[in-house]
Design brief:
The structure is a homodimer. Chain A is an alpha+beta fold. Chain A folds into 2 domains: about 130 residues, Nucleoside Triphosphate Pyrophosphohydrolase; about 60 residues, Arc Repressor Mutant, subunit A. Chain A is built from 6 helices and 11 strands. In chain A, the strands form 2 sheets. In chain A, strands 2, 3, 4, 5, 6, 7 and 8 form a 7-stranded mixed beta sheet that branches. A 3-stranded antiparallel beta sheet of chain A has the order 9-11-10. The first copy, chain A, is elongated, with a radius of gyration of 20 Å. The N and C termini of chain A lie far apart (about 55 Å). At the A-B interface, strand 1 and strand 6 of A face strand 1 and strand 6 of B. Strand 1 of chain A pairs antiparallel with strand 1 of chain B, so a sheet runs across the interface. Chain A binds a DNA duplex through helix 5.
DNA sequence: CCTTATTGCGTTAATTTTACGCAAAGGTAT
DNA sequence: ATACCTTTGCGTAAAATTAACGCAATAAGG
């Protein structure tokens, strides 16, 4: 069974799709890594990824990897860059179409191979296999850019969340701090949040108001073209 | 010589790099297209592009295409998306890593095959071969986003230009109009323009001041982190 | 029970954006 | 040449937005 059945006149590179999976635990951004069990880079950590089938797009391939590791089918997945350095894989020429996925940690089930998978906070990520350090840096930059144009933050939060959690998320991604009261005002003024059951009138003020992302309102506003700006 | 010498255990897609080449003639954005001489899509227009060699990155491949068509070696080239739809090429599975290049029209020499190459204004672009309509749309969107973060406009203008030319460029890319006086103030306040010889004191006011992009000043500001915002 | 941290709701000052006025000077048409 | 229109440079004032921060109610912790 070691026949080489697929032959071409010119050499073809292998093509893989990698998936940088981001989550948020209420305090910091986390990324899911897989420990490699084989050479090259045996024992090092890397992103989930694999060879593209001939009947799927790069994004479909990345989604397949995502599902294998997290059980999630409908998370937000976005392609962000294709890495094609000639020697990025020591074995053979491999180019990889890199994606990032944003998942709600609460919905993640252990994947097929939970033993070798682990979530790392951004400041705990070890040196990675292949060129995955570079891939991670670029993924984070894209995340920063994207969150200024689209409310992707909500992909990372539970359905219902507090304003403080939302602020923590923005601060973690953008690596800045905001004045709590200004952030609060700005977010509410955007009009893309809805309060869940309004806190009972006499109830304790200390219990924070819970919000939900208002996708319909956002769709309206997007039509008219609006920026988030932070 | 029709031997099939490169054999693999699994099928591999072909990988190409395409290069959407943008220019600016002082009024509108132009794009360089090549008329296809062979099937499929014979007679239709398409972007320059070609198969990636095994010893070059996607960007190097795109630069090679750029040089073949324009003679330019040091233009700004940026990868923006990889298109991997299963049937995007009717002959075989081909995925393409799409780039855009920004060139100064005055520096473009005719390419190797000038006969079949032509510049089109954006509103004259015909229906294109393959999925190149989609590629163009995405290239334009990326251009719009990018110009809000980095002063890529200067890649499209001559070394020396007037404020009106700069405004026309921004308006053409973003498809908006600005108040001339506000644009003027905003641009000058950014501090990334330098006047060329200050207009002689008694000279005619009607002769517009000529500017030059101040790359050093921009590098400084970028360090501190700044946004362009339009 | 006292201290501290969190939440909600403001206000004010600083800054930025937007809209537009105006004069000098060069072109254009008659 | 003259009258008129356009382009350029330089402002200014109002409107809107951002940034800084005050404060009271109330949980939570010791």
């Amino acid at each position: 069974m070691s026949e080489q059945n697929y032959c071409y006149k010119y050499p073809h590179p292998s093509v893989t799709a990698d998936c940088v999976i981001f989550g948020f635990d209420g305090v910091s951004i986390k990324v899911l890594l897989i420990e490699r069990g084989v050479e090259p880079f045996k024992g090092k950590w890397a992103f989930p990824g694999g060879f593209m089938n001939m009947d799927e797009t790069a994004e479909e391939c990345a989604r397949r990897e995502l599902e294998e590791e997290t059980g999630l089918r409908d998370a937000s997945v976005e392609q962000f860059y294709t890495f094609s350095d000639v020697r990025r894989d020591p074995r053979e020429r491999v180019i990889t179409v890199a994606h990032y996925a944003l998942v709600k940690l609460s919905e993640v089930k252990g994947g097929d191979d939970a033993a070798s998978a682990r979530w790392f906070a951004m400041d705990e990520v070890p040196s990675l296999a292949f060129d995955h350090d570079r891939i991670l840096r670029m993924a984070l930059n894209r995340l920063k850019e994207r969150i200024c144009f689209e409310p992707i933050g909500f992909e990372l939060l539970p359905e219902v969340f507090t304003m403080t959690e939302l602020q923590n998320l923005y601060e973690a991604i953008l690596e800045v701090t905001f004045d709590r009261r200004n952030f609060y005002n700005k977010m509410l003024k955007l009009g893309i949040l809805m309060e869940t059951e309004p806190r009972p009138d006499g109830a304790a003020r200390r219990t924070p108001t819970k919000y939900r992302f208002n996708a319909e309102k956002y769709a309206e506003l997007k039509q008219k073209g609006f920026r988030l700006e932070f």
